[in-house]
Amino acid sequence: MLLHTSSQDLTSFNTLGLRSTAHALVRYESAAQLAALSELAAQHSRVFVLGGGSNVVLGASLDCLVIKVVSRGIRLVAETDEHWIVEAEAGEVWHDFVDHCLVQGWPGLENLALIPGTVGAAPVQNIGAYGVELDQRFHSLVAWDLKMGSRVEMSADDCGFSYRTSFFKQAEPGRWLIVSVRFCLPKSWQPVLEYPDLKRHAVLGSCSGQATPRRIFDAVCEIRRSKLPDPAVLGNAGSFFKNPIVDAATLRRLRGEYPDIVAYGQVDGTTHKLAAGWLIDRAGWKGRRMGPVGTHERQALVLVNHGGASADDIAHLAQAIKADVLARFGVTLEQEPVAVYC
Fold first, then answer.
1. What is d(CA 170, CA 164) in angstroms, rounded to the nearest whole number?
2. Environment class of 262 (CB within 10 Å of its CB; exposed 0-12, middle 13-18, buried 19+)
3. In angstroms, rounded to a whole number, what is the distance separating the alpha carbons of residues 271 and 245?
4. Deepest in the core among 193, 220, 225, 247, taking most CB within 10 A?
5. DSSP for residue 34
6. Contacts with 193 (C-beta within 8 Å, 6 or more apart), sequence order
7. Same fold, 74-226 and 234-332
8. What sign does the CA torsion over 18, 19, 21, 26 have?
9. Nearest CA to 165 among 135, 131, 197?
10. What is the CA radius of gyration of the chain?
11. Helix, strand, or coil here: 321?
12. Where are the domains of the chain?
């Protein structure tokens, strides 16, 4: 059964806490609703699939059908000598899912602890943190083609993963609903501690040989909480800009003027990832405000809603930051959260 409502307030459905109203909203709870969802979607000119609302900038009035994904369920679907294959429904809270896996003795996702959002949204963004990206632990997923009314299983190749993007971010808006995601978690677990903050952590830095999945999970949570505001206290969507990737010539130019610039060599050996937070901080934006929005006082990469902000407020701030960074460094920043103005 579909619980279909009209004129739904979405302010509490996005972690930025932006004022937003949907023309129509339906909650997706189980696969039994999928066929009916396709029929309902066909009655609307536009559709938007909403997970935890942690990676979106919602417009003030969405004249479309919003599908709020709230399905739940976690199960071990297969086991080999080398891996556990774990499947989670799309509406599962990502952080809770990571914690559940550790409780069950299925490690591998601990570096991705405390990332806000749902399991179904994680592949869309190809989330990553502290040296691990989702595609490194991904097995497959089940998606529903709302337009064709069909179930599709997709491999990693089908999903087209790359840095903070996937097939789903490039696909026709509102066509795909991710139903469930499967992860391939290693039995021969090895800690991933290359990220500088983890190396410096009091528990892990001096005794990496004693690192356990739970210790890494706890360390990541502690680091994230020390740097990032809790969306329940101060509205935010986490890191607002991608770390830009530049060629060697650009990095040489920048290092000539800014010897302390933060950059990481990429696996291709020819490009380098710059720290967007460093660029924004050096441009003088850390802790600044523009009306009801601003950048966080401890992390310039995080845009925050101090209260009563709209998508337009966020857009104006983001554009001002991008313009300053481009003028100062000659580097273009790209927004991570998806702007939704349907």
1. 12
2. middle
3. 7
4. 220
5. H
6. 131, 199, 204, 208, 211, 216
7. no
8. positive
9. 135
10. 20
11. helix
12. 4-69, 74-226, 234-332
Closest CA to 61 of 5, 113, 19, 30: 19
User: CATH class for domain 234-332?
Assistant: alpha beta
Neighbour count for residue 83 (Cβ, 10 Å): 18
Alpha-carbon span 246 to 265, nearest angstrom? 10
In angstroms, rounded to a whole number, what is the distance separating the alpha carbons of residues 293 and 313? 7
CATH architecture, range 74-226 = 2-Layer Sandwich (3.30)
**Active-site positions?**
164, 239, 336
Whole-model pTM: value is 0.91
Q: pLDDT (tens digit, 9 = 90+) per residue, 147-166?
A: 999 999 999 999 999 989 99
Q: Which residue has the tokens 């009801």?
A: 292
- The CATH architecture annotation of domain 4-69 reads 2-Layer Sandwich (3.30)
Residue 221 CA, chain-centre distance (Å), reads 16
Please check whether residue 114 is in contact with residue 221, taking contact to mean a CB–CB distance below 8 angstroms: yes
DSSP-assigned states of every residue in 296-320 = -SS-TTEEEE-SS--HHHHHHHHHH
Query: What number of CA atoms fall less than 13 Å from residue 228's CA on the CB side?
Result: 23
Per-residue model confidence as pLDDT tens digits over 169-188: 999 999 999 999 999 999 99
Q: Are strands 289-290 and 4-9 parallel, antiparallel or unpaired?
A: unpaired
Integer angstrom CA distances of residue 308 from 23, 272, 276, 311: 20, 38, 26, 10
pLDDT surpassing 70 at residue 95: yes
Euclidean distance between CA atoms 273 and 264, whole angstroms: 5
Contacts of 200 (CB under 8 A, 6+ apart): none
User: What are 195-209's pLDDT values in tens digits?
Assistant: 888 888 866 655 555
DSSP for 121-160, written as a single string: THHHHT-EETTEEGGGTEEEEEEEETTTTEEEEE-HHHHT
- Name the residue among 237, 197, 236 with its Cα closest to residue 220: 197
